[in-house]
Amino acid sequence: MALVVQKYGGSSVADASCIKRVAQRIVATKKGNDVVVIVSAMGDTTDELLDLAEQVSPLPPARELDMLLTSGERISMALLAMAIANLGHEARSFTGSQAGVITDSTHGKARIIDVTPSRIREAIDQGHIAIVAGFQGVSQDTKDITTLGRGGSDTTAVALAAALEADVCEIYTDVDGVFTADPRIVPAARKIPKISYDEMMEMAACGAKILHLRCVEYARRFNLPIHVRSSFSTKEGTWVVADPYNEGTEMEQPIISGVAHDRSEAKITVVGVPDKVGEAATIFKTLADAEINIDMIVQNVSAAATGRTDISFTLPTADSQTALAALKKIQPQIGFESLLFDDQIGKVSLVGAGMRSHPGVTATFFAALADAGVNIEMISTSEIRISVVVGQDGVDAAVAAAHRAFDLDADQVEAVVYGGTGR
Ligand code: ASP
Ligand code: MG
């Protein structure tokens, strides 16, 4: 018998009727398979809980915030277990801690360090359907409840699937799979039938919200196939696997697999940094000590007359106040002139393993942006990705232009967005 791990996102369990529909789908899968289910909080519950926390405290203690947020998943897991019981099947719900999801103690973005799912095994062996609250675990040393960061239920699902040696991890969402661009921006986006872990990681890191980056990293490490599909239809979705272009029958490798975008970053420019050995090291050490993840970096050529240079970098907008404060502290030591801050930016990324062997991808991309009247502020590349930072109001146009330039537009609209508020 196969072991299928299924994860249902917030929009798939948004209300009672959604939960009943998902229960039916789970019961159908149970005919012939063992099933373990991971759930997210209903609809926008997590955001609503965050709003609530903000109303009682501008800076809620991280431990208590995690305690609060994990309650969202506990609501959906219990309701789902009830709905399944109502269909005459045995279901048991478990918190992350009960399911053996052991993490470090970093509240709000804890990392899974071990999964010991003995209670889940037991439930499966007894023929039960196990329902597990996503996005949460328990800290190994403090024993406090932790959360894995927004969208973390995907990671719970993959981590449990790996620990249980499941045959597949199905991630259910409100679209039919991974698309060549966000269908909300590009209605002609196409569903990608298969994509490699590497490309999916780049897409996730560049803002494609469909899968959590860490979930894909985890799946790659354990070579666990992920099937991303809609809980609102029975269509085949997107398979995320090691080598999609080399399995016999298969598709030719596209040059570009997809266009991702991200509006969650901001840009800081450190103006007039003395062009001396070690200054950049000091700046980025300061940011690292403040636990800030830097994305793109650009250093200008220093002006000969002044011997000074500007360094710009992007970072999550949410971390920008912390970063600015940390940099202000070292201003006297480094002697830079000022700090500029811009949160009206967006990042547009072209991802595709095929670009390794095709010259001219950058030229086509930049020409498409120019034709669309979009100015490029920063550029960064990897072997299989080209990203640009543009003004926030140019993001939609840039995504659409790139999508068209690489012939990704479908003849007929394929993408259906079934639910969710996109919040
Ligand atoms: N409910 C959490 C969130 O919205 C976790 C998840 O949905 O994966 O971030
Ligand atoms: Mg959610």
What topology emerges from the helices and strands here?
Layout: E1 2-8, H1 16-30, E2 33-39, H2 45-56, H3 62-86, E3 91-94, E4 101-103, E5 112-115, H4 118-125, E6 129-133, E7 136-139, E8 145-147, H5 153-163, E9 168-173, E10 194-196, H6 197-205, H7 213-222, E11 226-230, E12 238-241, E13 258-262, E14 265-274, H8 279-289, E15 297-299, E16 308-316, H9 320-334, E17 338-342, E18 345-351, H10 361-371, E19 378-382, E20 385-391, H11 395-405
Parallel strand pairs: 1-2, 1-9, 2-6, 3-6, 4-7, 9-11, 10-12
Antiparallel strand pairs: 4-5, 7-8, 11-12, 13-18, 14-16, 14-17, 15-16, 18-20, 19-20
Bound molecules: aspartic acid (ASP) and magnesium ion (MG).
Rg measurement, Å? 23 Å
| CATH-defined topology of the domain at 2-248 | Carbamate kinase
User: How many strands appear in the DSSP assignment?
Assistant: 20
Strand order of the largest sheet: 3-6-2-1-9-11-12-10
Report how far the terminal alpha carbons are from each other. 38 Å
Helix content: 25-40%
Q: How many distinct helices?
A: 11
CATH architectural grouping of the domain at 2-248: 3-Layer(aba) Sandwich
On the 0 to 100 scale, the average pLDDT is 94
Ligand inventory reads: aspartic acid, magnesium ion
Please indicate the percent range of residues in DSSP E strands (runs of 2 or more): 25-35%
Secondary structure class reads: alpha/beta
In the CATH hierarchy, what is the superfamily of the domain at 2-248? Acetylglutamate kinase-like
Low-confidence stretches: none
Reading off the top of the CATH hierarchy, the class of the domain at 2-248 is best stated as Alpha Beta
